[in-house]
Amino acid sequence: MPIIGSFAAGSAGGYGQRKGGQGPYTASYLVIAGGGGGYRAGACGGGGAGGYRNSYASETSGGGGSTESTLTFNPETVYTITVGGGGAGAVLPGAGVKGVDSSISGSDITTITSVGGGTVGTNSGDGGSGAGGCDFGGPGGSGTANQGFDGGDGAPSGGNTGGGGGAGEAGNTDGQGHGGDGLSSSITGSAVTRGGGGAGNGGGATRPGGDGGGGDAPSPSGNGGDGTANTGGGGGSGAVNSPNNGGDGGSGVVILRIPTANYSGTTTGSPTVTTDGSDTILTFNASGSYTG
Q: 278: burial class by Cβ within 10 Å (0-12, 13-18, 19+)?
């Protein structure tokens, strides 16, 4: 009589085997928090970009930080993706709102958190990248180590506020009130710059937000420009000479790059799924999850 064998579900060669086979595998990430809101018309500057953490290839993290270590994912483990929203720009008589943190978490990994961008007014201005300082020499907010740069100081003279810090440089680097530039990443297969700081207002000229989604600061009138969605860009401050609102910070983004041979295909939150070479890329523009 022949011997009848049996197979455990999910075992090699048996029924129920997951796509890509068994065992842990590595995943690269880019995690950007929401940008801070810009200040309303008057005395303070642009919002800071959201914190920027990157583990892809040899690309750097924000604030001059080095490339981070990749994550190790395990089959059947759920990894929660949180995408932070941008902070609201200041509206009279209030202050702006700090950007919201973005993160990747799971039961078997250390949570990766990027800090929301800073804003000014009744807030400290500190964040992933710092907000621009107030006029008459007000200091810019501090960025978070390995995530973003400081905001620029306000000028000693009135009506010249600081630019918000970006992932790639401090506010005011390219001129008084200019937002700090962000960083370029090719984690999706093509180079995209994200994490620009919002511009601070000035008495006589429109000032630009940082490359990578930072909002402009108009002159002589108008609301501050919004940070670009899913870049973590800071909001620009409103024009100095009339009661204009600050721009909103841009929402963040979380991107995972996974070997296609290991990709499970199980997600929530409707990420955009693309491929590049032998890898599958998940771009989360809103919160969701990935099951390894």
A: exposed
Q: Tell me if the pTM is above 0.90.
A: yes
Could you tell me the residue ranges of all domains in the chain? 29-247+276-292
Across-strand partners of 288? Answer: 81
Q: What is the pLDDT of residues 162-199, one digit of tens each?
A: 999 999 999 999 999 999 999 999 999 999 999 999 99
In this prediction, residue 202 has a pLDDT band, given cuts at 50, 70 and 90, of confident
**N residues, the chain:** 292
Among residues 211, 206, 136, 145, the alpha carbon closest in space to that of 177 is found at 206
Give tens-digit pLDDT for 98-155. Answer: 999 999 999 999 999 999 999 987 678 999 999 999 989 999 999 999 999 999 999 9
Q: What angle do CA 185, 207, 150 make, to 5 degrees?
A: 55
- Six-digit token string for 278: 């032998």
Mean pLDDT of all residues in 12-37: 75
Half-sphere exposure of 232 (CA within 13 A, CB side): 45
